[in-house]
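W.,

You were right to be curious about this one. When I first looked at the sequence I had no strong expectations either way, so I just let the prediction run and decided to look at it fresh. Below is the sequence, 220 residues in total, followed by the output.
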Amino acid sequence: MSPSSPVPPATDEQAMWRVQAHDDPEAFAAIVGRWQGPIRNLCLRMTGDLHRAEDLAQETFARLHARRREWQPTAKLSTYLWRIALNLCHDENRRRTRHGEVPLEIGADGEHAPCISVFHPTPHEELETAERADQVSAALQRVTEPFRTVLVLRHYEGLKFREIADVLGVPEGTVKSRMVEGLSQLTRLLQPALNNSPAANAPAPAIAAWQPRPQTKARL
């Protein structure tokens, strides 16, 4: 790097400050590069539609740039991003409900097509059967709000309860109670499939293994 080259921002917040103060395109590109995957994955889990998830992720960053003056430098950028993306997902789900639409990954008969994995599975997850993974994905789409949001943020995105509380603007105790209710709904939805499974007499991993993934902390 030449002496005249700008020093790359070390954190999301430093990059966003550059975007906010100087409309720095390289800093914004760095934010998009860091968060595009996680935001797309969140939108996929919230909507069950890969194509719409791509669109919603792009819209999230478009809104982030449009509202860059509203971001407070004392706040974590990730909290601001999650909130924008979730609001877009909720608007999309309400729109589809009004129009009677179903996700592309869910057929008109309600059967869930094989889910396209966009995560890097752990060794334990690689041992899960494709059928079980599809059942969990389909059941997750039927968990009601606001409980699905907490399940997605906690399990798939690896956020701590305190971080989820910041994103949603609710007390941490509320997040924990929503987690309990979300897992209860998911268990009930999965029970018929578990009862029909050849391993029905064995401990069911679908719920017991629902521990949050380690959250990736990458520097920009």
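Here's what jumped out at me. DSSP finds ten helices and no strands in the chain. And, maybe more interesting for your project: Residues 7-104 form a domain with the Rna Polymerase Sigma Factor; Chain: A fold (CATH 1.10.1740.10).

Coffee later to discuss?

I.
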